[in-house]
Specification:
Elements: H1 19-31, H2 35-47, H3 74-89, H4 99-103, H5 112-116
């Protein structure tokens, strides 16, 4: 088991649900995981140099190099917004679908150029 200390809380009102729904909820409890969130954080760290861990050179005692760290912390938020849009609308998984397609809010992969050069008046 990858998450041995995992705890899941049901916040849904169960009034009016039948037995089939309880079986479905039990199935969802078994599938509850932080794996998708951990994967997203890993992608953020690997693809955005601004959030890369500092480098510790071996020659310098206890010093770390924050070479790619942003000068303005607001830039991190802006980069994360751009990454989130790219991930949800442009990035395809192994099945060839984007997360937006999995949720049913997109019909296909969106090109990054269409997002960057989007004009609401056109």
């Amino acid at each position: 088991m990858a998450e041995p200390e995992k705890k899941v809380v049901l916040l849904t009102d169960l009034n009016g649900y039948g037995v089939d729904t309880l079986d479905h909820l039990a199935h969802l409890f078994n599938r509850a995981s932080l794996h998708a969130i951990d994967r997203f954080f890993m992608l953020v760290r690997r693809r955005l140099r601004l959030l890369e861990r500092p480098i510790a050179p071996t020659r310098r005692a206890r010093r770390v190099w924050h070479g790619y760290a942003p000068y303005d912390p607001a830039m991190v938020g802006k980069c994360l917004d751009i990454f989130r849009v790219w991930y949800n609308w442009c990035f395809t998984g192994e099945d060839g679908l984007t997360p937006a397609e999995h949720l049913g809010v997109a019909k296909g992969k969106v090109r990054m150029e269409d997002i960057v050069y989007f004009d609401p008046d056109a």
